[in-house]
């Protein structure tokens, strides 16, 4: 019995600092700066894109829900699907609203405001519903300044240590990248083996945003910004940040191509 109690006590003492169940919600508003000619955004062909990989993608399901809602309301056509990525004309299969992950490749632009159903709380991280976001004044101010919103979203998550905290995917905007010659060759070769080769769309903004807790809150963001003419191995700009933040304060991250407003709020569940 004593040995069992010692094991339990040791486990309690070694438990990470986030074991008290502290939860937060983060709101992110990304907008275009329009400074595409800046010398800070020269094409970077040596960028290691493996450093920008994510652990959790909450946005893709929210994007798909948004597309299906728009389609149901008649604001968006049903998804177009084809079995030949090199076909001049797209053969539409079906006329119903059932957007799936593979249909994103046929989109010119992702929704600016991903939709999710309002939830009080779940055991896993989840996207905030539009009515749970609070940057309405900031969006109006950006509109008056002629700034275009690229993405406005948020999610709730548990406060975790730097080692345990996941990297949440942050992506949006236009599908702007083109395939490199190597990727085209690989895709052509895959056509001989598979009737439905997969092509991952390259977005104007992509990467991850991570928040960890160590007495204070810290934000790490590794993002790439793409422009027309970029390829899947060559991008225009990098947007990497590491900053300690204060809960409840709005923090501004600046870049020649994009700007980002971030606020982290305590969430009591």
UniProtKB/TrEMBL annotation:
Pfam family, one: CsiV
Entry keyword set: Signal
Signal sequence extent: 1-19
Record protein name field: CsiV family protein
Species name: Pseudoalteromonas qingdaonensis
């Amino acid at each position: 019995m004593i040995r069992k109690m010692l094991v339990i006590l040791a486990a309690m003492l070694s438990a990470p600092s986030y074991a008290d169940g502290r939860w937060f919600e983060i709101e992110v508003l990304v907008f275009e700066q329009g400074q595409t000619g800046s010398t800070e955004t020269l094409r970077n062909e040596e960028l290691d894109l493996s450093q920008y990989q994510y652990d959790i993608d909450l946005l893709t399901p929210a994007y798909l829900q948004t597309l299906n809602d728009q389609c149901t309301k008649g604001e968006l056509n049903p998804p177009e699907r084809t079995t030949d990525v090199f076909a001049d004309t797209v053969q539409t299969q079906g006329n119903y609203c059932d957007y799936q992950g593979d249909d994103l490749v046929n989109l010119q632009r992702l929704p600016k405001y991903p939709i999710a159903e309002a939830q009080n709380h779940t055991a896993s991280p989840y996207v905030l519903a539009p009515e749970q976001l609070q940057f309405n004044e900031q969006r109006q101010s950006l509109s008056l300044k002629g700034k275009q919103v690229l993405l406005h979203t948020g999610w709730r998550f548990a406060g975790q240590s730097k080692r345990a905290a996941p990297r949440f995917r942050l992506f949006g905007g236009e599908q702007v990248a083109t395939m490199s010659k190597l990727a085209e060759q690989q895709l052509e070769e895959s056509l001989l083996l598979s009737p439905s080769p997969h092509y991952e769309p390259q977005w104007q903004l992509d990467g991850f945003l991570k928040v960890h807790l160590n007495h204070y809150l810290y934000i790490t963001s590794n993002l790439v910004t793409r422009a027309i003419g970029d390829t899947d191995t060559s991008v225009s700009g990098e947007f990497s940040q590491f900053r300690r933040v204060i809960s409840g304060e709005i923090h501004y991250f600046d870049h020649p191509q994009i700007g980002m407003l971030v606020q982290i709020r305590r969430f009591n569940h």
